[in-house]
DNA sequence: TTGCGCGTGCGCTATCCCGT
DNA sequence: ACGGGATAGCGCACGCGCAA
């Protein structure tokens, strides 16, 4: 098997606190740092990433010491900038990827809205000051993502417990408790409700049917 | 159908090359 | 000589083919 696009290995110098936070987040999500960066690149428009503040390089005193464990220089200490290393498709700039990872951290901290302008950016028109700008490109991306990741509505509707588990995204045979069930339903309902920007009447209807079946089964 | 071996790709870590 | 960036190498996961 050969790949058409070779991945490139990026070295991203950053403050040790930033590196630790990113690695903690990756560990918490059970993914690697590259996955975090790719996720942000997938769902956040490039213009937003470009505008996001760059966490920047480590300061002059922020250095890590590495002791070589083998080779001719075994035992020799190396001082270098704290860094993150990721393998991704070529063509990205280090600052851009550092911003992307900063967005991942911001989202994890609950900052679910990303402003399209920074303090240094040219002043916005008076009527737009202090408001988030809705990027049409972002809306299209999000709709595509929701469409791809959502379950395919069942042609014959939700007729069995297995169908219900499928619609709610649980593996076959799983017996979710009431709290897990309600939490999953609420999350999916906010996405598929016809009033939502990404809503779908058919999916919402099948969600309700699935919930009914599982609630009856749990009773 | 299952188990085994092989090949390939990828992530992570450590090392080494080269510019300053 | 030092230190940053690039990459080599190791180990793991997964897909595929084949045999039992």
Mean pLDDT: 67
Low-confidence stretches: 1-6, 115-134
What is the general shape?
elongated
Main pleated-sheet profile = 2 strands, antiparallel
Q: Measured on Cα atoms, how large is the radius of gyration?
A: 23 Å
Number of H- or I-type helical stretches: 8
- What is the strand content? 5-15%
> Strand order, biggest sheet?
1-4
Total beta strands: 4
Q: In the residues, how many domains can be counted?
A: 2
Class of secondary structure makeup = mainly alpha
CA-to-CA gap between the ends?
Answer: 52 Å
Helical content (DSSP H or I, runs of 4+): 40-55%
String of helices and strands = EHHHEEEHHHHH
Verbal overview:
This protein folds into two domains: 114 residues, no CATH class; 69 residues, DnaJ domain (Helix Hairpins, Orthogonal Bundle), CATH 1.10.287. Helices cover 46% and strands 9% of the residues. Helix 7 packs antiparallel against helix 8. It is elongated. It binds a DNA duplex (20 and 20 nucleotides) through strand 1, strand 3 and strand 4.
Question: What keyword list fits this structure?
Answer:
single chain, about 220 residues, mainly alpha, Helix Hairpins, 2 domains, two-stranded antiparallel ribbon, 8 helices, 4 strands, disordered N terminus, DNA-binding
């Amino acid at each position: 098997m050969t790949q058409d696009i070779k991945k490139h290995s990026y070295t991203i110098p950053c403050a040790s606190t930033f590196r630790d936070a990113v690695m903690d987040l990756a560990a918490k999500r059970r993914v690697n740092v590259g996955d975090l960066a790719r996720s942000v690149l997938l769902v956040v428009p490039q213009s937003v990433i470009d505008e996001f503040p760059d966490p920047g390089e480590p300061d002059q005193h922020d250095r890590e010491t590495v002791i070589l464990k083998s080779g001719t220089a075994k035992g020799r200490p190396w001082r270098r900038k704290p860094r993150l290393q990721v393998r991704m498709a070529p063509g990205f700039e280090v600052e851009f990827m550092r911003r992307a990872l900063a967005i991942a951290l911001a989202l994890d901290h609950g900052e679910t809205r990303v402003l399209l302008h920074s303090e240094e950016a040219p002043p916005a028109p008076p009527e737009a000051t202090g408001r988030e700008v809705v990027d049409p490109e972002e809306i299209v991306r999000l709709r595509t993502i929701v469409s791809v990741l959502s379950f395919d509505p069942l042609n014959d509707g939700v007729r069995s417990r297995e169908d219900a588990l499928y619609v709610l995204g649980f593996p076959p045979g799983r017996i979710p408790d009431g709290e897990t069930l309600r939490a999953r339903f609420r999350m999916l309902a906010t996405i598929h409700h016809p009033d939502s920007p990404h809503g779908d009447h058919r999916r919402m209807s099948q969600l309700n049917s699935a919930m009914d079946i599982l609630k009856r089964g749990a009773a």
